[in-house]
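Q: Joint fold for the lines below.
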Amino acid sequence: MSIPRELIQRLVPDGTPPGQYRFNHEDCPAGTDTKRRLYIRVPEDNPAQRIAYCHNCQESGGARGKGLIGGRRAPVLASKARSLIDPPQTVAYDDMPVTAVALLMSAGITEEMCSKYGLFYDERSQRLVYTYRDRDGTILSQQLRALHPLIQPKYYSIDRYGAEFSSGVLGEGPLLVITEDLLSAIRVAEAGGRALPLRGVYAHAEQLCYEVTKDEVATILVWLDNDNDHVIARADQIVETIGMFAVKPVYTYLTEEEPKHIEHNELQEILNEYQQRLCSTG
Ligand SMILES: [Zn+2]
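A: Joint structure:
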């Protein structure tokens, strides 16, 4: 179930300036709402969009032109300039340049993980390819990383559905860890956690809404990389956006070390610590 698009568009018509608006949720399935518990947000960066969440019935929804969000993917025309590359079934370190292997190894990524998660070297672009998928294995996007510091851009992306649905969650569990890239997400999943990779420090509201409102997610840890003002501001923004959609504890873990640079056992300990907080707070 999601909040009907027609209702969202009637309450917040086209041309409404960016901001957050509150309404009583008419016909709220959780009972009459008199406390204006339906929040509808018009994002600053995309004022054609509407993201709705009701704190009474905990349903979400959204409207975006003719698309529907909130449990359903809205296909957006992706750039046709570059098409997705099929990941090979198995990936061998021996087939990659030593710079690629060094980068993967420093992030604790093994050959086996490369095959499992679709990380490979693309001869044509001479870049390392990170494959982002959804739960059923559909490739949502690929990020191509340069292997030499002088090659710009460092990353470029090929999206199937648009940047707002460019990545899916890896791993299981009640603790959702939001990471910057696929390598960190893989390491979290391998350490027994659930991870949403962002492809940077910017999270799309639709993407967050889709993942944080899931029943299986009990708490969220925002774990971005280094300790500078820009990243801190981004993390705060992510926490604020999550708060709009879900009444769940959200923590931030700001450190110089991303999950991919933390040793496996230590990473497991950190995840366990947050899981335990979750149990003790009930
Ligand atoms: Zn409601």
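Q: Anything notable?
A: The helical segments are 5-11, 98-106, 111-117, 182-190, 205-212, 229-245, 264-281. The CA atoms of residues 62 and 132 lie 24 Å apart.
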